[in-house]
Amino acid sequence: MTGSNSYQHPNEHGYYGPFGGAYIPEMLHRNVEELRTNYLDIIYEPGFQKEFRELLKDYAGRPTPLYFAKRLSDRYHTTIYLKREDLCHTGAHKINNTIGQILLAGRLGKTRIIAETGAGQHGVATATVCALKGVECVVYMGEKDIERQSPNVARMKMLGATVMPVISGSKTLKDATNEAIRDWINHPSDTHYIIGSVVGPHPYPDMVARFQSVISEEIRIQLKEKTGSELPTHVMACVGGGSNAAGSFYHFLDESSVQLIAVEAAGLGLDSGHSAATTQLGKPGILHGSKSLLMQTEDGQVTEPHSISAGLDYPGIGPLHANLFKTVRAKFLSATDQEALEAAFELARLEGIIPALETAHALAVLKQLNFSMDDKVVICLSGRGDKDLATYMKEMMPDNL
Amino acid sequence: MNNRIAEIIAKKKGNVMNVYCTAGYPQLNSILEVMKALQENRADIIEIGMPYSDPLADGPVIQNSSSVALANGMTIAKLFEQLKDFRKPPLGGLGVLLMGYMNPVLQYGFEKFCQEAAEVGVDGLIIPDLPEYEFETEYGPIIKKHGLDFIFLVTPETSEERIRKLDQLSSGFLYAVSSSSTTGVDNNMSHVIDYLQRLKEMHLQNPVLVGFGIKDRASFEMACSYADGAIIGSAYIKALEQARDVKAATKSFLSSINGR
Ligand SMILES: Cc1ncc(COP(=O)(O)O)c(C=O)c1O
């Protein structure tokens, strides 16, 4: 269970190399400690695994297909497989984690669930599993994100969740996370916080990575069926906090022949002052309970990031990824708002798949890379683009004139 | 080792009044005026908040004071500059703590921060998101080297074993958070009697000051009847929010609590 590989697992204090830990005020100690001492026992207990696997299969629709994208491959002169997380129930990889955490919350006896959301995908995935289990659900969402991801707000409400608008700071994901943590401080006994990415205090990054690792577990099996070998040459994924990337990389972290490529949001450009490319622009710092890379001023105030995609509009990155960056185990690239939009249209017209704006960032860097025909490139198609149609339509207007 | 905080508390024998104010609030240069006004009105200790963009443990009132202070241009470097001469009379005897979050302190340079804090005459630190593991392995020795107190928080949810441990690691006093909440909560202090009584019966090595939700004479006196004193935060910030004159506002607020 706890393998020896240092990229995959943090040490007992939650550190991946120099990054991680649990920098939390005492008011959160009991809840976080309860999780830390119980999470591995709970999630590897056979009854839990059985229920988790059944829900992934029958409810979320796993395994998701690994699709050979022929026309996209032709376009980039290589062999590209898309891991279709967009076909999961609720439309993104986020449900893998929320199913795991709702089962965990049940075993801890929690009766109230809180979550933060940026794009709304994690909020929807949380509201969904709360409906499934009949548990109260409160989702914190920045006011700016409520505007730009309105279809997901409607979905959460229909599912019975309370959506709490957050008006502090940049009114996006960072501030929604602050408010969720404050809510948890104020509800010390009945509430479980379902965090949406591989961020937060230990054990969250490790726990979320384990729940998402089903993505790379399936990739290995599916690739073997299709090509005779379990190993691709490249795995690519977009990174906000880094959960779809962590899940896609997980079972390849140890395989040094596999190149891992993480793609951050460059916003209007790395030097524009309006970006969310944390590894390129950040320094070591502490946010939301862990030490990682962080976009901040010289005085250590967290800066407001920018990305066209709400799910990548975050000034930090999970500590697992900070360590992959520092040790150069993964390559970190970035794509601008414009490049992501173009990549979304390209995929729509080459393959008939409309990706989420977050996912489109991973596709956008295909242009920056040189592959050979023999390469086997797996891209995590983390989510579908329905929630982004308003943005896409605005972009399409010149086309229609 | 500077023992000013412990001495102030020992000498006062109860009813210690510790008041929080965010540096750079209401104006960039308010802090010395605030400190003078607090001392003149018989506060014993000031907890100077170093503003941070993401104050996780704080409710709306202190969050807002932090945003205002940051918009005013407050930084740690400016704070040390403002505090440079405060130990000269008339402020000589006031206990002074710096309270803030880890990230700005890390960026300033942890050791440089401790050294300069000690040089200007600060007595101790409260950093709620510095956990005890990192304190013991990395930061505690630096804090001690510069003769500063470090004060841990405990809550009604903290186990007895852990309270003992945090008491051992703390010096100056132990900060008893009155309820599991962010700052500025409007809690009913009568709910915390059992908890404060429990702390009292533990005969800890440090004195205990109670904070969070101390907002008026009744809550201050309630806390002081079980502990060595109390910490007032959001209620004082609120009193400054409307005020044109820091001195007058402080006088009227504090006399509503400790006036005879
Ligand atoms: C479709 C999709 N992909 C990616 C992300 C980014 O999150 P993470 O980096 O945790 O995968 C989000 C977040 O909302 C998302 O909705």
Explain what the structure shows.
- The complex is a heterodimer of chains A (401) and B (260).
- Chain A has 401 residues and is an alpha/beta fold.
- Chain A folds into two domains: 15-55 and 94-208, Rossmann fold (3-Layer(aba) Sandwich), CATH 3.40.50; 61-92 and 213-395, Rossmann fold.
- Chain A is 42% helix and 17% strand.
- Chain A is built from 16 helices and 14 strands.
- Chain A has helices at 29-43, 46-59, 70-76, 94-107, 121-133, 143-148, 150-158, 173-186, 204-212, 214-227, 243-249, 278-281, 319-326, 337-351, 357-364, 389-400, and strands spanning 15-16, 19-20, 66-68, 79-83, 112-117, 136-142, 162-166, 191-193, 234-238, 259-267, 283-287, 290-294, 330-336, 376-380.
- A six-stranded mixed β-sheet of chain A has the order 3-4-14-9-10-13, sandwiched between helices. In chain A, strands 7-6-5-8 form a four-stranded parallel β-sheet, with helices on both faces.
- In chain A, a hairpin with a 2-residue loop joins β1 (15-16) and β2 (19-20).
- Chain A is globular.
- With 260 residues, chain B is an alpha/beta fold.
- Chain B has a single domain (4-253), classed as TIM Barrel, CATH 3.20.20.70.
- Chain B is built from twelve helices and nine strands.
- Chain B has helices at residues 4-12, 31-40, 60-71, 76-83, 102-108, 110-120, 132-145, 160-169, 193-201, 217-226, 234-241, 246-258; strands at residues 16-22, 45-49, 95-99, 124-126, 149-150, 153-154, 174-177, 208-211, 229-232.
- Chain B has a nine-stranded parallel β-sheet with strand order 5-4-3-2-1-9-8-7-6, with helices on both faces.
- The N and C termini of chain B lie far apart (36 Å).
- The model of chain B has no long low-confidence stretch (mean pLDDT 94).
- Pyridoxal-5'-phosphate binds at residues 92, 118-119, 121-122, 197, 238-245, 311-312, 356, 358-359, 382-383 of chain A.
- Pyridoxal-5'-phosphate binds next to α5, α11 and α15 of chain A.
